[in-house]
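Researcher: Re-running this chain for the archive, since the previous output was lost when a drive failed. Same request as before.
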Amino acid sequence: MSKKEEIVKRLITHGHKIKADTKTPYFSPDKQANDFIITNSNAYLFAVIFDQNIPAEKAWTAPWLLKQRLGHWDLGRIVAKGPEILRDAVKQKPALHRYHYLGNWVWEASKQLVDKYQSNAGNIWKNTRDARIILDRLLAFKGIGQKKANMALIILYEYFNQKLDNLDEVDIPYDVH
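Model: Regenerated structure tokens:
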């Protein structure tokens, strides 16, 4: 077995142990933020977008903090106010992300959810079990590339019990970070 295969095997084993040890998925050390991700599909999608070049715990806490800063979680209102509302909320001290343009990505995702998915990210994976279809839908969001889309799909399967066909075609690339 190669070194890379051994690492993959250990990571998979560790992941199964963590999953067996916890009944609730762990995304954020903040219980309210964690519960928000678990119960709100839009928060889940936005966390995936935020999960870029910052610690995962910070990225997955960002949607909860964003909701606090905005005072609501109404995508229609967010879209109507324009991207600057989210840009300002992201860069407000302490900044939710070091890249303030993520506010633009979240606004564009909000608009896409309002226009195409009835303001509910859960509709991205609702009524389909085809992993390829869901993957393509995730890839249509700015800030979600192949790696993040694959990660999001695996999380949907592993922690949110999304039934998926063709999952063997989804690949999480090895990342040294």
